[in-house]
Amino acid sequence: MSQDLRWSIGLLITGLCVALLSFLGNSPPAFMTFIAAGVFIGGAGLLLALRFLMRLSRSRPGPSPHPRQ
Amino acid sequence: MEWIVSAIGVTAIVVAILVVLLFRPQPLLAPGGVALGTLLLIVLPGAAFLFGGAHHLEQSQSTEFCLSCHVMEAYGATLESDEDILAASHYRQRTIPRDQACYACHTRYTMYGDLYAKALGLRHLWVNYLGEIPDTLQLYEPYSNRECLYCHEGADSYEAADVHQRFAEEMDRDERSCLSCHGPAHGIYEEVEEAS
Predict the structure, then answer these.
(1) What is the nearest CA distance from B144 to chain A, expressed in angstroms?
(2) How many other C-beta atoms lie within 10 A of the C-beta of residue A69?
(3) Do A46 and B46 count as a contact with CB atoms less than 8 A apart?
(4) Residue A52: its H or E element
(5) In chain A, what residues touch B60 (CB-CB under 8 Å)?
(6) Is B107 helix (H, G, I), strand (E, B) or coil?
(7) Confidence at residue B194, expressed as pLDDT on a 0 to 100 scale
(8) How does DSSP classify residue B70?
(9) ipTM tops 0.85
(10) How confident is the model at residue B124, as a pLDDT?
């Protein structure tokens, strides 16, 4: 499995779990925790996922533009 | 809508899917993996964060949220005061929702009032945790009559008072503040001045 995919999933799980924990509170610290989880950890995970998907799509040979007669 | 239900539900489901994907990533590497990956790694986590954000934004309007900061405790205490203070009378008589008491009066009743309130809230967070909290809290700008008139204008009790009719234009232009007759809003400044 690609490192990008592994890190992406790991960061997304971490970000979402921290976000879940932040739902327990109703205060500015809980809000800040969510921002940190969503913007920084989740954002990094989404960027890595995007990079993995772009590499994956490039590595796939598409339909040939000049099909054999 | 209770965003908390959607936020927790969607987040928990996405976490479960991602945990499975961590140990069995084969579907992503198979044909059609790009589309599946976009859904599972971008769309669903993005949706979970959006639902979570909506929940937190909804919560940030609550009185409990505002008064959870130490610096706001004195203002919260005035809500339940027995004295003839504007904030207390609104709170006691339930003319504002008790669970959104701060937000009801301290948001702008304009098209982007909610967004403006959120932006100021982020500034408050910054000052509270990373900046220097001033000894005496003050509004960023004079309190606009617009916020009072949003509820009171047109009400029988408001229209029946001659003085409101007499100064209607001045009040619309914010040249005469509602607080000049009905203030103080919290009665905190006088206490600070007396203490100092």
Answers:
(1) 26
(2) 3
(3) yes
(4) helix A43-59
(5) 31
(6) coil
(7) 43
(8) G
(9) no
(10) 87
